[in-house]
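In this supplementary section we document a worked example of the pipeline. Step one takes a protein sequence of length 206 as its only input; no multiple sequence alignment statistics are reported here. Step two produces a three-dimensional model, which step three serialises into structure tokens for compact storage. The input and output of this example are shown verbatim.
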Amino acid sequence: MDKSIENIWKNGNAKKQFRIPNIEKLYNQKSISYVEKMIIEFKSEVYILIPATVLSFLFSIWLGNDNAIYWGIIASFPGLVWFFIGKSQLKSLIKLDYQLSSYDYLVAVKTKLISIRKFNRNLIVSSSPILLFLLLIYTYYKQVGKTIGEILGVDGLNYPTISLFLLLPIFTLLLAIVAQIHFKTVNRKTTTKISKLIGEIEELRK
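The serialised model returned by step three reads:
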């Protein structure tokens, strides 16, 4: 259907088959329909944080460490923060004015999405190492004097307890790489269709 509209437009028969307002209405409907679908997907990403946070808390309790409830709260706290941030981002997407032209609406949605994805990537890369650092401090003071091998139950790792903190830069680097790959993959997936619709409208405007 899209190709037939473009062909009619390019062949100069648009006035005979369609009026410009009808074409604009079509793209308005397509734009709103796609964005609504995308918002539903984004909403599911936000609300999946609730069971993930609960599981994180229960897992800490299940480990049965000293002050398990305390560490369960610490472990689940980032999930709660990310959830409320996600809800705020979701509202900002919904509030975008779809009464604008379909072109302006799609450009606004694309810009907002890229901004949200970048923010989330940076948030995860910066906040996760903080949580790990707290856990390493706790482990260090509970296991001080033991080797890494004794702590992890692995023979041959005869490194002092302080070596635990080497995990922090390694973890942060790996997390940054994974987050960047994930950001590019998800960003490409969510913006490809929008970019295509924007391109079609730009082509029709020529």
